[in-house]
Structures are given as C-alpha cells and as structure tokens.
Amino acid sequence: MLVVMQAQATEEQVRAVCQKIEALGYRAHSMPGAQRTAIGITGNKGEVESGSLEEMPGVQEVIRVSKPYKLVSRDTKPDNTIVKFPNSRVAIGGPDLAIIAGPCGIETRDQAFTIAERVARAGAQFFRGGAYKPRTSPYSFQGLGEEGLKIMAEIRDRFGLLIVTEAVDYESLDLVDQYADMIQIGARNMQNFSLLKRAGRARKPVLLKRGISATLEEFLMAAEYIMSEGNYNIVLCERGVRTFADHTRNTLDLSIVPAVQRLSHLPIIVDPSHGTGKRNKVTPLSRAAVAVGADGLIVEVHHDPDRALSDGMQSLFPDQFDALMQQVRQIAAVLGRTIPNAAGQSILVGESRMSGS
Ligand code: PEP
Ligand code: MN
To answer: Side by side, which strands form the sheet with 59-63?
Structure first.
C-alpha cells in the first residue's frame, strides 16, 4: 500500500500518517519527491485497512501497489534516487557517472596504493577492492580481512577516493559499515536474505550485485529486502549472468539497465570485468554500458595482473584504464553526462589526467 500525500501536505501531516501506520503495526517509509511525498507501507501481517488513512488531513489517496516490489518501484517514487555520500560531492544516479575502480582483492598495502594512485589519477571517484573474498575454492585467497579494510581507509585519506568493498556475512558487514563508504553485497549473496536485512539496517549505501542467475524481479526483490529495513541508499549492479555462452565468463546483460530504469527509481551501474571475465572485452563493454545509460562502472584494475591473487585475467592494466576513461568520457558527453573526479571537478573530454595534477 502507498499513501500519496497532497502536494501541499505539511510535514506534520506526513508525520501523523507515519505514526498512524506504525500504530497499526506496520512500517512507514516516507519518500519525499519533487511533486509530493509518498509513504510506503510494509509489514507481513496482511493488507492495511485503508479507510482510516484516507480520511487523515493531507492525504490525497491510498493505493495498492500491485507489483511484488513496493519501495523500489517507480510507482512509489517517480523521481530517480540519487545516492549521496557525506562530506563529498560525489553522487550516484544524477547526471554524473560514477567510476569505481581497483583490484579484485586487496593483497598488500603496496599493491593497493600503487593501483589507487593510478585510478585516482585517471579520474575514478571510488576505489574498490575485496578484503573478504567469496571464492569458489576454500583454498583460494580469501582476503586480508580487517587489515584490508584498514589499508582501504588509508587510501581514502591519501587519495580522497571513496571506498567500496564487499561484506560476506554479519561480522564482515559490521566492519565494512565502519570502514567503507559503500557496502558491496556480491552476486553470491544476492539472495542471502538475512544479510540483505542486516545491510538494510546499516548506515552506509549498499552496492547490490545481481545474482548469477537472478531474474529482474528477483534482483529488485533483493533490493526491496534492504529497503524494507530502512536503508534507501541502494545502487544496483549488473555483473553478468550464467548462460550457455562460453566465450565469456558470464553474459553481460546490458538490456537490464533500461529495464530497471523503467521499473525502479534506483541507480544501476555495470561491472564489465566480472561480466566478461576477459581483459580484452572490458573496454568495449564499458563503452556499451555507458551508451546504454548506466549510472556508472565498476572495473577491476591491477598493475601486475599475471601475479594477482584473484581475477587477474579480467583486470585492466592501469594504462588501459586511462584509455577506457578517455573513451567513456566522450560517450558520456553525447548523453549529456559528465565524469567528475573525486573532488567533484569536471575533466574535459580528451584530458587524461585529473585537473591540477
Ligand atoms: C567482486 O566484485 O570482486 C565480486 C566477487 O563480484 P561478484 O559478486 O559480482 O562476483
Ligand atoms: Mn573479482
């Protein structure tokens, strides 16, 4: 159910409706929009009796949301969600494109700093790197744990990059929430519902990756789990799905970008690294992702990929990442979008270096 408030409804009237919903034993999610505020009602004790809400001052109408996802739906919030980061001019989902880059895993302090310096110089606003790695084999590198998070926090201080890293369970989620700027939930955990709920109670925005065989509806329902717990700052990420095709590691499903944008107000970015698994396909698919209208990219970069402890085959060399940035800047410009650096400064098309360096 959704309570649509009148355009001129006061804050007090919105608050009174929320209190009433909570008193009835449901959860109220107030979603202010450009035109009016909508209040989503969630709970698992059946449908709300709408009559008493309809009569409250400031209420325009009470409507049933027929789709299984409610809060992530455009029916609830017609305007795009723009995920903002405190003390930063970086945002995801507005006109600027978000570029997240870094190694698959944090291996050593030197490795992470070398790569961070290069991706910052190329104009990325976010540094990625796993401190907790969900690996197919228990004998593969599992990540440095909290030590990796500390290295990333140092990188934020040194280069001004925002930090994105994956949480794989409750314990790591609490730590990632402390150290990082955005919490990544990986493909393998997209339907780990208790982890999603925990992420919904975290303070930081969540980067939710699509499961390896998730439908659009399952993907949006995973985001709904997070949002139903009160965290409205979610960025979706297409990272390829498993198909019969074996020329790439996964099949990057770029058509999900406009499909998500039609149904949901949440931003969506693309991961061409896991989406293809092959270095030589990362730049072409990055160009395509920007052209299709994605709100950003997450790209794996490594200065010595042959010796990377994970995903070296799909990691770009830093020089290749420089070239990728130049190309996607030009494509972004065609769409009226820009790629500012972490300090919020725009970089002119054709410039390869961050302004001022
Ligand atoms: C990653 O980003 O390194 C990762 C493990 O991604 P995914 O969950 O999409 O496989
Ligand atoms: Mn990886």
So the answer is: 27-32, 37-42, 2-5, 59-63
H or E element: which one contains 116?
helix 109-122
* Residue 304 burial class via C-beta count within 10 angstroms: exposed 0-12, middle 13-18, buried 19 and up: middle
Distance 351 CA to ligand 1 centre (A): 30
Amino acid at position 45, single letter = K
- Atom 9, ligand 1: residue with shortest CA distance: 187
DSSP 49-84: --HHHHTSTTEEEEE---SS--TTBTTT--SPP-EE
Q: Please name which ligand lies nearest the alpha carbon of 282.
A: 2
The Cα 41–Cα 64 span in angstroms is: 10
Between CA 255 and CA 135 the distance in angstroms is 28
Q: Are 209 and 224 contacting, i.e. CB atoms less than 8 angstroms apart?
A: no
What is the Å distance from ligand 1's center to 31 Cα?
Answer: 31
Ligand 1 site residues (CB inside 6 A) read 104, 130, 134, 186-188, 209, 239, 271, 274
| Among 115-119, 129-133, 262-266, 350-354, the least confident range | 350-354
Q: At what angle do helices 216-228 and 256-263 cross, to 10 degrees?
A: 50
Q: Residue 352's pLDDT is what?
A: 47
What is the sign, positive or negative, of the torsion defined by CA atoms of 70, 71, 76, 77?
negative
pLDDT, one tens digit per residue, over 38-82 is 999 998 877 888 888 999 999 999 999 889 999 999 999 999 999
Ligand 1 midpoint to CA 186 (Å): 5
Question: Whole-angstrom Cα distance, residue 354 to residue 266?
Answer: 29
Mutate which of 137, 166, 213, 251 for ligand 1 pocket (most atoms within 8 A of beta carbon): 166
Contact (Cβ atoms closer than 8 angstroms) between residue 41 and residue 49: no
Ligand 1 atom having least distance to the Cα of 240: 9
| Phi, psi angles (nearest 5°) of residue 163 | -110, 130
What the block records as the tokens of 111 is: 């490795």
The answer to whether 103 and 313 have CB atoms below 8 angstroms apart is no
How far does the centroid of ligand 2 lie from the alpha carbon of residue 353, in Å? 26
